[in-house]
Amino acid sequence: MTDIVGRMRQAFRGDQRVDADELLTRLDAVRRFLTAVDGHLPDSQLVPAHTLVERAGTRLALSRDHTVVALAGSTGSGKSSLFNALARMSLSPVGVRRPTTGVAHACVWGPLDGANRLLDWVGVLPRHRFVRESVLDGDDESDLHGLVLLDLPDFDSVQRSHQLEVDRLLGLVDLVVWVVDPQKYADRVIHTSYLREFHRHKDVTVVVLNQADRLPPTELPRVMADLRRLLDTDRLDGVPLLATAAVDPGGLDDLRAALERTVAERQAVLRRLAGDVDVVVAGLDELVGPDRSAAGPDETAVRALHRALAGTAGVPVVAEAVGQAYRHRAGGATDWPLVRGWRRLRPDPLRRLHLPDPAGTDTDAPAEKPLAATSVPDPTAAQRSALGLAVRTVADQAGEGLPGTWPAAVTSAARSRLADLPDALDRAVAGTDLGMDSRPLWWRVVGGLQWLVTLAAVAGLGWLVLGYGLRAIGLPPLDNPQVGAVPLPTLLLLGGLLAGLLVAVVTRPVVRWAAGRARHRAEQRLTAAVAEVGEEYVVSPVRTVLASYAEAGAALRAATRR
């Protein structure tokens, strides 16, 4: 028996100390994890982490000089008698009627004022708080100054409120002393519902076999060994196991010595919170998975998205309209002046789409026109389907391999702004510089040349009409100069007409080539504009989720105990 108790004492010393700064770093990492996953994971999966951050911050802010120890046990285990024996005062009611303890009682070693705020947070009513200060034995109790001992309700009480109170308090105390008795130490409820759940809190867990005086001396080692076997099965190997007897003056020496060491070390609160972090991190680990990095959206899928956006935004239609507008405007600047008026009767292709004309080159339209929604044709069902497929492909490939609900978060992010996408695409098309804001120099040169040959033809025609008019009224005919055998007026008329036709024929292929270049240039600019919209409305939200995933993984690694 002496060897067993000696090993228990050695295990309870807690030689491995918890560094307060390291604990704060781990708690901050959990807080960063919560910030990273906010809005991406269901709140129901994050409740333990939020509770930990709130409780840990409050507990550390209240008092580091007090150690809250709870006596927990089933009905009839004698924990209230043990509580009174440790306090050496009759504080918690003891009786044959069970359950006796319905609310938590607290005994504070040292001034009560220093522990009141802590007990307010724990939730012990003022009338159930007691102070263990006595002039007669004050020196004997000095080693326990800073101890706040709680006598909890019975966890197996028939009253549900008692069970809930026990569960609440077990989440707040620094150290738990589980009190079992020789009759019910193997009870399934305490092992499966409580002890087994505390395997990550071995550093702040003690098990005592109370009422050991009821066992024959030869039976005590066998019962202790069997209880140790059960604790090992509960993954509580190494947890201190002590035998106590509240009625025996020496039956509490080992437990009292263990409590004195705990109070002196001031480590219980840090060990408890470190265990809490371990529990929370283990639960969060499955939300992030072993591979805590994300490659990002696939570039091939992104390019397919850009093509689908271009089709939905009507980029081919607008680009074709740019080519037609170039030919329309070039013809209006380089055709015969007499034909230009006929061209003005035809609407400008860009004007039909309500696209901007910064230079006001189309003089049949107002010089200034406010930017409004375009008249680009609505996307077809096939184009809408292609866009939906492209968005889904980006999300699926970006979320591939992510654990838990992260793929759903990626998909939700990719689709989060689809309702705003049509207006954004329309604004992008309307705000794109289509390269039609200036008249090329060669238009002016050809247009001036057309005016010259037209004026020559008009001059020749007027000359000839004048000659015919003079002859018609009997006046002497004009002496027209000759160019070879051709009169000069005839040469001006026919030469001007032929020259204008020749300039038009030579210019037309140049206009088609230049219109093709303008179309291609506009298509590139429009595609770049809608690609920016795709980045902002689809790809960027996906990257944000993936960045949050990576940040959450990094935070979880920092929160893991090394």
UniProtKB/TrEMBL annotation:
<keyword id="KW-0131">Cell cycle</keyword>
<dbReference type="Pfam" id="PF01926">
    <property type="entry name" value="MMR_HSR1"/>
</dbReference>
<dbReference type="GO" id="GO:0000028">
    <property type="term" value="P:ribosomal small subunit assembly"/>
</dbReference>
<dbReference type="GO" id="GO:0005829">
    <property type="term" value="C:cytosol"/>
</dbReference>
<dbReference type="GO" id="GO:0019843">
    <property type="term" value="F:rRNA binding"/>
</dbReference>
<dbReference type="GO" id="GO:0043024">
    <property type="term" value="F:ribosomal small subunit binding"/>
</dbReference>
<dbReference type="GO" id="GO:0051301">
    <property type="term" value="P:cell division"/>
</dbReference>
<feature type="domain" description="G">
    <location>
        <begin position="69"/>
        <end position="210"/>
    </location>
</feature>
<protein>
    <submittedName>
        <fullName>GTP-binding protein EngB required for normal cell division</fullName>
    </submittedName>
</protein>
<feature type="transmembrane region" description="Helical">
    <location>
        <begin position="449"/>
        <end position="470"/>
    </location>
</feature>
<dbReference type="InterPro" id="IPR027417">
    <property type="entry name" value="P-loop_NTPase"/>
</dbReference>
<dbReference type="InterPro" id="IPR006073">
    <property type="entry name" value="GTP-bd"/>
</dbReference>
<feature type="transmembrane region" description="Helical">
    <location>
        <begin position="490"/>
        <end position="511"/>
    </location>
</feature>
<keyword id="KW-0132">Cell division</keyword>
<keyword id="KW-0812">Transmembrane</keyword>
<dbReference type="GO" id="GO:0005525">
    <property type="term" value="F:GTP binding"/>
</dbReference>
<dbReference type="InterPro" id="IPR005662">
    <property type="entry name" value="GTPase_Era-like"/>
</dbReference>
<feature type="region of interest" description="Disordered">
    <location>
        <begin position="350"/>
        <end position="380"/>
    </location>
</feature>
<keyword id="KW-0472">Membrane</keyword>
<keyword id="KW-1133">Transmembrane helix</keyword>
